[in-house]
Please model this.
Amino acid sequence: MRGGKFKEWDGGGRVPAVVYWERSESNYKNLSSQVTGFVDIVPTVKEIIGDSNILKRAYDGISIFPVLKGDTKCIDRDFYLGCGAVVNKDYKFIKKDGNPKLNLTEDFLVDYQTDPYERKNASMNNEQILKRLYQVIEKYDTIMPLVPEIPYGKGQKGGEGSERMESNALIILNISFVYSMIASVIQNEVKNFFSLNMQREGILLYALYDG
Model:
């Protein structure tokens, strides 16, 4: 796979997802190429345990329960990777000015049907697809986060010493705060079903799309 960590190529974020459900009504043993990620955990578990409460906040995630139980092989969806990139089962689009680490000089479209290793830019032959995925990215890029973001790349360049230490400290603080916010949201939105119903159902979820 092309790329590495902190890059929007598959080598930077594509990992297997494993869901183990000990007490399911039937033995679901399915393999799928479903595009999924951590944002799908809450909607999926809500459907599994039959929680019909409407979430107070809009979620990017979807329930992949139909895929887990074999009702469908794949749900067609656009998954936002951040840094001006979006992927679905057929294509990946990366804006040239999204992630400076990629050093792109033009927008890049991957056609997975003909180029699974992300080597060729298919932008010229797929203008309508390019336009639609660009609009998907624009929609997500206008969303303001609950927790202020540290500017991308801050602390990665420049001198040593106090400036870098201060930047690293801010990043650690920001990550800790984000995780505490996530825990709070989960607790408030789904009323502790992680600690109660997931334990009852015997569900374990492992590494999803690690963008």
Notes: The chain has one domain: 10-150+193-205. Residues 10-150+193-205 form one domain.
